[in-house]
Amino acid sequence: MTAVDYTVIVVYLAGMLALGWWGMRRTTSTSDFLVAGRRLGPAMYSGTMAAIVLGGASTIGGVGLGYQYGLSGAWMVLTIGLGLLALSVFFSARIARLKVYTVSQMLDLRYGGSSGLISGIVMWAYTLMLAVTSTIAYATIFDVIFGLDRVVAIVLGGAIVICYSTLGGMWSITLTDMVQFVVKTVGVLLLLLPIAVVKAGGFAAMKSELPPSYFSPMGIGAQTVFTYVLIYSFGMLIGQDIWQRVFTARDDKVARVGGTAAGTYCLAYAVAGAVIGTAAKTLYPHLGAPDDAFATIVKDALPIGVKGLVLAAALSAVMSTSSGALIACATVANNDIWARLRGRPANASHDEVAGNRLFILVMGVTVVGISIALNNVVEALTVAYNVLVGGLLVPILGGLLWKRGTGAGALASVAVGGTTVIGLMLWKGVLASEPIYIGLLASLVAYVAVSLATKPTDAAVLDAWHRRLAGDPAPEPAPTPANA
């Protein structure tokens, strides 16, 4: 690292704080703070959507998987991109037309206010752990850049994200994510990818040095790919952090077209990470851990100035996911949990910028504290996605696709699926495949059985739901009973 590299990184970090201040000046209402006023056009929407889904796990972890498995290491990020494409093509237009702030508010609209609190708790746990995994990743990057102690690195990175997120909410996060998208594109796709391949001697040299399995599309294993689809592709369909970005779209066409562009970008990013990891394996065949591949190739293979930009790209990846998860966590905590416990309707229709800002600050400090206590990013991320998919996938997709689904069925699905996933993770281990397989099946059985055994959803509730899906101009969700 040289003075030029440090200057690039420090300027980047200062720019993030400046954009946070600028975003604060554009934030005058709850809608501005939580969903950027619902007025993003296709270019900004697609850039920020790509930024949030491609975080530290997709960048550092994606390169690490390429180092460990070769080109098939792209599958984790590929399934993220495929999930985003499915969301954008099949569901985003309807989601955008709902004009809600949270996934739980969508469930309230669909089922008549019967499942909001429990689904809010599950979603809060997911977004909290997602924010934690991104925050832990600061330790790796700041250690490479400044040689900082792990705790100091987490506090420094977390403080920057908390600062700009608290200042301007989604407007600040949108502005910073757009810069982060550009930095990631230049740093990873346009600089690190070609330089890594050239340093490794090209694909011919890589093939001669590495086993054939490194160039097999299924070298990582078919079961692993299937598990990635269940966890990440389906996780993209229902995560609050992703839906909250859909809510920022100016209209349903922007959500569909911009999201499709972002999903396509993710596919290219997946392949790039795997190729970089494969090149790193050729250059450094005996690294201590696969996740060291990104930092090692950046530190040893890149020229002055470029090294700083690529490390800034890694910071961009981590910060975009961290800030998106943080505002999602705070939004759910305030509007789906705290509002109901206080006994007021969870419709967020009144102006509560100060309250939402306070929740971001509190959740941010909580995330930093948990991140210091934990160390295993993969396990934390797996817990987050297992609980999310196992508990909420069936009632959310069921509500969108099956008219006969009921509120009681949704509650049973969340309770049975979530409990099964957690119990099996405790029994079989966090990284086992059984929790998500059996948990999803249990959730589906409970949803269908209880829905068929209970009265159909009230016709008035379904009528209001279908009007909203069709683009009813009502600006906010209907009030939810305080004891929902």
Write a short abstract of this structure.
The chain is globular and about 65 Å long. The chain has 484 residues and is an all-alpha fold. The protein has 19 helices and no strands.
CATH superfamily of the largest domain: Sodium/glucose cotransporter
Series of H and E elements: HHHHHHHHHHHHHHHHHHH
Binned, the helix content reads: over 70%
**Count of individual beta strands:** 0
Average pLDDT reading: 86
Task: Give me the CATH fold name of the largest domain.
Answer: Sodium/glucose cotransporter
The radius of gyration over CA amounts to 22 Å
Organism: Streptomyces botrytidirepellens
Transmembrane segments: 6-24, 45-67, 73-96, 117-139, 151-173, 185-206, 218-238, 259-280, 309-333, 354-374, 380-402, 409-430, 436-454
Pfam family, one: SSF
Protein name: Sodium:solute symporter
Question: In words, what does this structure look like?
Answer:
There is one protein chain. The protein contains 19 helices and no strands. It has helices spanning 3-25, 30-35, 42-53, 56-69, 75-97, 103-111, 116-146, 150-199, 202-209, 222-238, 240-246, 252-283, 292-301, 306-341, 353-373, 377-401, 407-428, 434-453, 459-469. The longest helix is centred in the middle third of the chain and has 50 residues, at 150-199. The chain is 78% helix and 0% strand. The chain has 484 residues and is mainly alpha-helical. The protein folds into 2 domains: 3-375, Sodium/glucose cotransporter; 378-470, no CATH class.
